[in-house]
Amino acid sequence: MGLAEAPVPYKNQNMKNAIFTGATVAILLATQTVGRADDGGAAIKNLLEHQRSAAGPACKMFSKSEVAGFLGKPVKDGHLAGMGSGCQWEAVDPSHGPRGFIVNRRPKGDYNEISGAPRFKTIKGIGTRAFIADDGGWNAGAISGNAYTLVLFQGDVPEATALKALRIAITR
Description:
Helices cover 30% and strands 23% of the residues. By secondary structure, it is an alpha+beta fold. It has 2 domains: 13-50; 57-170, Protein Transport Mog1p, Chain A (3-Layer(aba) Sandwich). A 7-stranded antiparallel sheet has the order 1-2-3-7-6-5-4.
């Protein structure tokens, strides 16, 4: 009879340890940042309410009525999107027609043409470099100064509406 073979250690034990350590640190940081677990969830609720508020500069670029005009229907209040670099307005009734609008302002180095999207084209006369593309809704972006501004429409709106929103956004 041969000797029993010793169990082979997990192939990626270092990776497993790194993931476990990272997750543990994230949990500890979250609990210290968010608050005590015995506060009835108030700290988490406050954090989520802040996240859904129109507290970012992008949310001040357009009024609720302007966005409703773009979509041709009422919208909910804007809230942070894009990890805080953008703002999103959603249609009150998303069941038909356009569902929402997002504006995002980032450093000009983040400029990214989605040239593989259907109906992509470069646009002259908006900022120093601009594009528009249909990617399930119009996406239009431009560099102006040191900023890259992107507007996205969720659902169908006229191309002219997307270009109008982009022209307005780069001036604000």
